[in-house]
Amino acid sequence: MNIIEVELITVRMPLKSPFTTSFSTQTERRPLLVKVTALEDGVQTIGWGECVAMSDPLYSEEYVDGTRAVLERYLVPMLFAHQAAGHEITAETVGHVLRPIIGHRMAKGALEMAILDAQLRASGRSFASYFGATVSKVKSGVSVGIADSIPELLDVVGNFLAEGYVRIKLKVKPGWDIEPVRAVREKYGDIPLQVDANAAYTLADAPTLRRFDEFDLLLIEQPLAEDDLRQHAILAKTMRTPMCLDESIVSAERAADAIAWGAADVINIKAGRVGGYVEAKRIHELARANGIPAWCGGMLESGLGRAANSALAGLPGFTLPGDISASDRFYEQDLTEPFVLEDGYIKIPTAPGLGVEPIPSVLAEMTVHTASVRPDRG
Ligand code: SMG
Ligand code: MG
Q1: Tens digit of pLDDT for each residue in 186-240?
Q2: DSSP characters for 147-170?
Q3: CA–CA dist 92, 264 (Å, integer)
Q4: Among residues 15, 28, 127, 167, which one has the fewest Cβ atoms lying within 10 Å of its Cβ?
Q5: pTM strictly above 0.90
Q6: CA distances (Å), 170 to each of 143, 146, 219, 261, 347, in order?
Q7: Architecture of 2-124+360-377 per CATH?
Q8: Does the active-site annotation cover 137?
Q9: Domain 129-347 CATH assignment equals 1.10.275.10
């Protein structure tokens, strides 16, 4: 595959309602899309990637304008240089080619996703088939933001249950934890329920965190800071609720450490956070080999990311429902044809590549910035 252009397109997607976590309230998302144009045997193919970095560096150190800068200045030129030196660019090798640039996993992941999409579209193969998905649809869980009051939270949860979501994840933070979870358990009974703290606690909060044990949660996600693997292991030993890591798991190596040290009973796999779908699949294999349940996380993706995530989540090690909700969970208007909830499931696209693409008129309307990088003709 010969890449002839990489476009970096920043889009603005307003959220239907604000989404509050322990670290921010979001009212819109500005994902960076990566559009790769390539020639395969003289035939032009397009591939789409979606970068999951948020507008501000609050979930991780990456942020959308920073990912654009590193792609434009380093990552894309490195690929073109590699290609100019006579090497073939493939999704399987792009991670290795970009290895000299430290970190910037979300930016790298978006580029790899676009290359993989182009490669698969050119060969007529879907993401699901490439990953080895064993099912045609995946169970859909929903992530519920921090609300202004408990009655309001109960309404929101009730509506999602009525829509058919099969698992509820409640965002928690100090001061919004035990009571909201108790209220949801009391009102909705034995539903599959889990919590996500996005690193808002410290080990000093262990007595509070242990109180979650009375609610029979599926798991508690990332209670402590990103770097606190040892502390998560200490906390895990004193809690009955299974410990799940999200932000801490940035690579297969980190996942292996977390498992070996007893810091993770469960793993949230997000391709963007770990540098792309190739690494995400490695983590899936690692978790499966170790008997560690995995599930697919979400970053409020547009239909592009949702398509790739649902295909990944079709692998057999994804034993828990993912944060793969319908398009209308967050968006009035998705970039692609919308993903819909059917009896608690999301269908995995079957057409070549992602199986979906941006609707041109919607993309044009949502675009706030574009840049194009082409090979240096020297
Ligand atoms: O895509 O359904 C989704 C969002 C799921 O809660 C979600 N993601 O920590 O797991 C997480 C968060 C990260 C983004 S919060 C702004
Ligand atoms: Mg999380």
Answers
A1: 999 999 999 999 999 999 999 999 999 999 999 999 999 999 999 999 999 999 9
A2: PSSHHHHHHHHHHHHHHT-SEEEE
A3: 27
A4: 28
A5: yes
A6: 6, 7, 11, 27, 24
A7: 2-Layer Sandwich (3.30)
A8: no
A9: no
Look at residues 219, 215, 218 and name the one whose alpha carbon lies nearest to residue 235. 219
pLDDT (average), residues 55-73: 98
On the question of pLDDT at 292 being above 70, the answer is yes
Length of the chain, please?
Answer: 378
pLDDT for res 377: 66
13-20 and 25-29: which strand pairing?
A: antiparallel
Is 297 a pocket residue for ligand 1 (Cβ < 6 Å)? yes
Q: How confident is the model at residue 39 (pLDDT cuts 50, 70, 90)?
A: very high
How far apart are the CA of 71 and the centre of ligand 1, in A? 24
State the pLDDT at residue 89. Answer: 95
171 is catalytic: yes
Catalytic residue among 171, 173, 187, 237: 171
Taking CA atoms only, the protein residue closest to ligand 1 atom 5 is 298
How close is the Cα of 372 to the center of ligand 1, in Å? Answer: 29
Give the residue extent of every domain in the chain: 2-124+360-377, 129-347
Pocket test for ligand 1, best of 19, 140, 143 (most atoms within 8 A of CB): 143
Amino acid 202 reads T
Could you tell me the two tokens for 308? 């790739």
Determine whether the shortest distance from the Cβ of 198 to ligand 1 is under 6 A. yes
Is a pLDDT exceeding 90 seen at residue 112? yes
Q: Of all atoms in ligand 1, which is nearest to the CA of residue 54?
A: 16
CB distance 323 to ligand 1 below 6 Å: yes
